[in-house]
């Protein structure tokens, strides 16, 4: 007999809003359904890159910098999240999925308190008002992917409503940029969390099984590295 209690409960992906000074989680947003796909883009920050291009279309950077990196790679993530109130019949939802949508939207909106404070300073004649700082946001995809992020895209497609026109089903396209030590000030908690994320990548890479150079059809490692040929071509 199958014992459903023995089936491991799937881990949910989600977003954690953290106080950057104390490290205390202020809000945990668990995605109702894990996205089926993730689109990740990793762009190296090469010191030899240049905005100028020659006739061949290639960058004309300093050749002495070709193998140097200016800092961590810039990584972006994109995925689609689904929210469906009909999957939660046991929970009363008089507002439909308004609360879930509002929670995500507030990740890219300053609070009314901070806006009022900025307006108050403006009325007092403060010439330069610092941009409003948002809480530190972490994205989690299992225990091996916990990283500081900034949301860059939040597109919402509401596809079903109740009798009071509250949305009850929506698809969200979410884009985010991984924040690195190049994006955050020294000593920031987010910078420490990024370093832990990068260290996790290093541990995973160290555990990958290597292969001999012969698998690539090359005659010998020594001749390959030195540029000499060990046989006739």
Describe this structure as you would to a colleague.
With 233 residues, the chain is of the alpha+beta class. The N and C termini lie far apart (64 Å). A hairpin with a 5-residue loop joins strand 5 and strand 6 (146-161). The chain has a 7-stranded antiparallel β-sheet. The chain is globular, with a radius of gyration of 25 Å. It contains 4 helices and 7 strands, in the order ββββααβββαα. 19% of the residues lie in helices and 29% in strands. The protein has a domain at 10-43 and 70-194. Residues 51-60 have a biased composition (Gly residues). Residues 41-65 are annotated as: Disordered.
Radius of gyration using CA atoms only:
25 Å
Q: Fraction of residues in helices?
A: 10-25%
Strand order of the largest sheet: 2-1-5-6-7-4-3
Quaternary structure of the protein:
single chain
> Structural class from helices and strands?
alpha+beta
Mean pLDDT: 85
From the N-terminal CA to the C-terminal CA, the straight-line distance is 64 Å
- Low-pLDDT residue spans: 53-57
**Helix and strand pattern:** EEEEHHEEEHH
Count of distinct strands: 7
Largest β-sheet summary: 7 strands, antiparallel
Total helical elements: 4
Q: Which geometry do the CA atoms define?
A: globular
Portion in strands: 25-35%
